[in-house]
Amino acid sequence: MADTVLSTNALPTTAGLDVAAIRRDFPILSTVNRLGKPLVYLDSAATSLKPLPVIEAVDAYNREYSSNIHRGIYEIAEKATGLYEAARASVAKLINAPEPNEIVFVRNATEAINLVANTWGRKHIGRGDTIVLTEMEHHANLVPWQLLVQEKDGDLEFVPITDDGVLMLDVYEALLHLRPKLVAFTHMSNMLGTINPVRELTEMAHAAGALVLIDGAQAAPHMPVDVQEIGADFYAFSGHKMLAPTGSGALWARRSLLEAMPPFMAGGDMIREVHLRRSEWNEIPWKFEAGTPDISAEIGLGAAAEYLMKIGMDNVRAHEHAMAAYALEKLREIPGIELYGPSADQRGGVVAFNLPGIHPHDVAQILDRSGICVRAGHHCTMPLHERFDISATARASFNVYSIPEEVDALTAGLREVVRIFAV
Ligand SMILES: Cc1ncc(COP(=O)(O)O)c(C=O)c1O
């Protein structure tokens, strides 16, 4: 491999995608580290890189029309409001939401889930009520529900997973006999990569009378998502994992649910009328967007949604599936490596692993010398790591700009790690 910029042979299975052209849209991919090594970014599940159309959209806001939204009656403020609301329409289109006003802009998936727990949850969950989660949830889709049931004296139940990292649907079915009020699960696991059968899980939950929240943080950036087809009630995701700036994200929920939910944060912009002792709330979604939002970040999220739709989410999914399959094949060749999660057909572009007797932090540190970025730790899924009786893993994760040469660099780096630890 050259020590400058990685070459860009597209995978044979992703003929529909010009990955070389896509990589040129990401300025950071032509940078090198302190030792002159090109960036091998394999940590997209933590946060994605940002393409030029997103960078330029944010820059244009700051340079050309920096102003507040929904207030100013002058040209640049009207432009800011127009582009902020246009971003909402782009995000709605990306996930096929019935209408843009069912998209609430939030800072990230964590905030979206906390919003639901603190509004719908506090109103509807009471003493003895059950919420069903799974063992593979990110802390963002676990801790808010812990707080809620502690406050309300409710219960949490968990769908267990198999050794291959797949949900046990027979246990799920049995848990639904408890008549939970809510079922909340991730669309795709950020550690195992497992893609859950969200439509089937949703249908089963609805048949048992529960509402469904889906944590789409790892799915919305990587595959076609159609909230109407899935049929869920709430869908949460972060912008920064889908090529958009940090500070952007969205919660989708049905209009009827959003209208019936009390506000989350209170203050400016979320009200229609304020009197000294009472107020009336704004229409949705603004009822949930108190104070000045991260305007340029959400405009950037709109640009990211448009960028992804131009590539085509089917193409993104096909590319990342091929990347995961290639990574699994190559990593399996390393003696003693422990790989977690299901086969490539059931997973997205995430591969967590351990090398025998070597802590993942050491793995990540040595790889860093070669410009290779992987995540090491519990990835905010401590209970899931406990399930496998481990405290940490190293994780490589992919995005639409990832290339097989980066997997080759990773496997070469891991062989080097093994060599260093063998002496
Ligand atoms: C599955 C999943 N859910 C939720 C989150 C939380 O995302 P954020 O930190 O952007 O709120 C993450 C982040 O890694 C995730 O992977």
Characterization of the model:
- The model is unreliable at 1-5 (pLDDT under 50).
- The protein folds into two domains: 12-38 and 313-422, Aspartate Aminotransferase, domain 1; 55-310, Type I PLP-dependent aspartate aminotransferase-like (Major domain) (Aspartate Aminotransferase, domain 2, 3-Layer(aba) Sandwich).
- Helices cover 39% and strands 14% of the residues.
- It has helices spanning 19-24, 52-64, 75-94, 109-124, 143-152, 169-176, 198-207, 227-230, 255-260, 295-311, 313-332, 360-369, 382-387, 404-422, and strands spanning 40-41, 103-106, 130-134, 155-159, 182-186, 211-215, 234-238, 249-253, 271-274, 279-281, 338-340, 350-354, 372-373, 375-377, 393-397.
- The protein is globular.
- It is an alpha/beta fold.
- α12 packs across α14.
- The structure holds pyridoxal-5'-phosphate (PLP).
- Pyridoxal-5'-phosphate is lined by residues 108-110, 138, 140-141, 186, 190, 215, 217-218, 238, 240, 380.
- Pyridoxal-5'-phosphate binds at residues 108-110, 138, 140-141, 186, 190, 215, 217-218, 238, 240, 380.
Helix/strand layout:
Layout (H helix, E strand, L loop, with lengths): L18 H6 L15 E2 L10 H13 L10 H20 L8 E4 L2 H16 L5 E5 L8 H10 L2 E5 L9 H8 L5 E5 L11 H10 L3 E5 L11 H4 L3 E5 L10 E5 L1 H6 L10 E4 L4 E3 L13 H17 L1 H20 L5 E3 L9 E5 L5 H10 L2 E2 L1 E3 L4 H6 L5 E5 L6 H19 L1
Parallel strand pairs: 1-13, 3-4, 3-5, 5-6, 6-7
Antiparallel strand pairs: 2-8, 7-8, 9-10, 11-12, 12-15, 14-15
Helix pairs in contact: 2-10, 3-10, 4-5, 11-14, 12-14
The protein binds pyridoxal-5'-phosphate.
The site of pyridoxal-5'-phosphate (PLP) has 14 residues, from helix 4.
